[in-house]
Structure formats: structure tokens, C-alpha cells
Amino acid sequence: MFGSKYFSYLINPLELLRTKKVLHVNPTIVSPRAEPDEIRIFVYDFTPQQIDVKEVDKVSECFPYIDSDTITWINVDGLKKTEVESICNHYGIHYLITEDILSIGQRPKMDEINGLLFCLLNMLYFNEKDSAVETEQISIVLGKNFVISFQEDASRDVFNPLREKLKVAGTKVRQNKADFLFYSLIDMIVDNYYLVMEKLGDKIEALEEDIVRNANTRSLVQINSLRKEMIVLKRSVAPVRELVNGILRSENDLVEAKTEKYFKDVYDHIVQANDLAENYRDMMMNLHDLYLSNVNLKMNEVMKVMAVVTCLLAPATVIGGIFGMNFDAIPLLHNRWGFFISVGLMLFIPLAMIRIFRRRGWF
């Protein structure tokens, strides 16, 4: 019963499934994407003076904005192959980019095709219930006067603060062109990485205290679980540095010189996030070493107690063995006080040994 309790921690089917999901990545195999029942398309068309926000029912309603003099943000929540291909074909987005948008498990990257800038990266969320880092792939395309973002999940994202800023006249995003909107989307995704890492940091600190106080088999399971989440975090964060650096080196006319300093700020943030992810990974390795040290320390304490008990019982064993021999001439064998003397020696010698051990600091 005792063994099965801890054995269940080590063979948890959910943990095995999580391991397969984290480590199984093969970009040469196109994984089937389950299409949503419906998609939601929001259009934010604005100038410094006014803004028009609406949800369109048909994909074709997004087409007129390609020739608009205003700045347009088209946000597609939910990826259906037909609708995504229709939008991409109308806005001149290359087939290879369309394929990346519809793919699963892509590495964050940046491309420049047909004069358009394309970024693919992951939005991160922290699931408090499962203590897991969840990812959502997002694709962002920058054109002359438009930005198109494609999201997998229609129920959540990190762009609500940006939507509120768009509704307020005089904000920077309203005063600038599409490249600043493009920067703002990437910046909010990167800033949200810190919120996820903060949650992971709290989990690591709590686990460290738990290991120091009482390291057990469950602690080892939690360490392995957090190490998997660190893999997910590192895989999502590390390539974004190269992505932002690619935008800075692209020299595309869509990114104005005055906007480059904002991308440099994002680059600084992602470098710091990457360093923090490295620190967390080192902490996880240290926690594993701390767990092993505590386990060895407990084992040493047990062996120490057993050794002391063995030493204390040794005199009684020797005395009992001597007086238990079958010789005719044994001292005190027929003495009326012989039994009490032997028992007294059995008690006195261990007590003397305890005093000596304590003076030497052995326990």
C-alpha cells in the first residue's frame, strides 16, 4: 500500500502525456489541425481622429481595407483553412506564409516575402490548476496600411490593453502607422512572458521551501513536472530574440526609422526574458541537487542512528555471549550476585559510551 502510493506519482498518465506533448516535435510532419466550429473576425480601422470597430460576419467584408488610407487591424480568432487562405490570397500573402499560419508547433520565426513582414510566435498562459505553461500560436502580418493577426484560440489573448488604447484618441498607437501597431502586438506578447515566468518563479520558490523542510518522492515528481514547463517556456522565448533581431536587420520600408527604437526596446526585453529563463533552468537543476542532498542527508542520519544503537548494544551482546559459554569454570557463574553484576555492566558501559559520544559531538 505504501509503495503503490508513491509509485502512482511516478507513472501518472497525465505526466506521461505531458512529456510526449513537450518533447514530440517533428516539423517535417504536418499535424492535422482541428478546425473550430466558427471564427470571429474583428476589424479596427482608425485614424488619429476617429476609429471604427466592428465584427464582420463574412471574410469578404475585410477585403476593402486593402486600399484604405486608414490604418487597419484585422484580428482573426480561430483558424479555418478556407477563410485563412481567402484572406491571405486577397492581401497578397505568400503561400508559404499561409502554410505556416495553418501549421502546428512551428518554431517562432520572422519572414519577409512579397514586401510583407511576417512573424510567428507563441502567446503564453499559465494554467494555475495544472501548474502548466500553455501556448497559443499567433501569426502577425504587416502590410503598408494594415496588420493582420491570426489566433488559434478565440477565448483569450493578451491584447485587451491595446484594444482599449485604440479607443482613446491621442495615444501613440493612434498617432502612428501600421508598423507601430505591429510593434505593439509583439511587445504585449513579450511582456506577458514575464507574467508567466513570475508564476513559474513562485512555484519554484514554493517547491524549494518544501524540499528544504520535507523532501520526499512527491517533491521529485514536482521537480520533473516543472522542468518540463521550463522546456516549454525556453522553446517559446529563446527564438523570439532572433525574430526581433530579424525585424531590426530587415531594412524593410514598412518599418520606419522612428519605430526601430521601439523594436530595440522589445529586443532588450526578450534578452532579459531569455536570461531569466536560463536562471530558472539553473534553479531547477539546483533543486534537483538539493533534493538528492536532502535524501542522502536523511539516509546518513538513519545510518548514524542505527550505528549508534548497534554500538550501544555491542557490550551487552559480548557480556551475554561470554557468560553464555558452556565452560565449567566461569567467574561469578555460581555467585549469588553474578546476574546483577552482568546486568549492571550491560547498562553501565552503554551509558559511558553515550557520554563519550556526546563529548565528541557525534550526536
Please tag this protein with its features.
single chain, 363 residues, alpha+beta, Beta Polymerase, domain 2, Methane Monooxygenase Hydroxylase, Chain G, domain 1, 2 domains, 7 strands, rod-shaped
Care to describe what's here?
This protein starts with a helix and ends with a helix. The chain is of the alpha+beta class and 363 residues long. The longest helix has 67 residues, at 257-323. The chain has 2 domains: 2-294, Beta Polymerase, domain 2; 304-359, Methane Monooxygenase Hydroxylase, Chain G, domain 1 (Up-down Bundle), CATH 1.20.58. It is rod-shaped, with a radius of gyration of 34 Å. Helices cover 57% and strands 15% of the residues. Strands 2-1-3-7-6-5-4 form a 7-stranded mixed beta sheet, with helices on both faces.
The helix-and-strand class reads: alpha+beta
CATH superfamily of the largest domain: CorA soluble domain-like
Strand content: 5-15%
In CATH, the topology of the largest domain is named Beta Polymerase, domain 2
- The tally of helices reads 10
The helix content, as a percent range, equals 55-70%
The string of secondary-structure elements, in order, is HHEEEHHEEEEHHHHHH
Number of strands: 7
Short description:
The protein has 363 residues and is α+β, with helices and mostly antiparallel strands.
Topology:
Elements (H helix, E strand, L loop, with lengths): L1 H9 L2 H11 L16 E7 L4 E6 L14 E7 L3 H10 L4 H8 L6 E5 L2 E12 L4 E11 L3 E6 L8 H7 L5 H4 L2 H36 L3 H33 L7 H67 L14 H22 L4
Helix pairs in contact: 2-8, 3-4, 7-8, 7-9, 8-9, 9-10
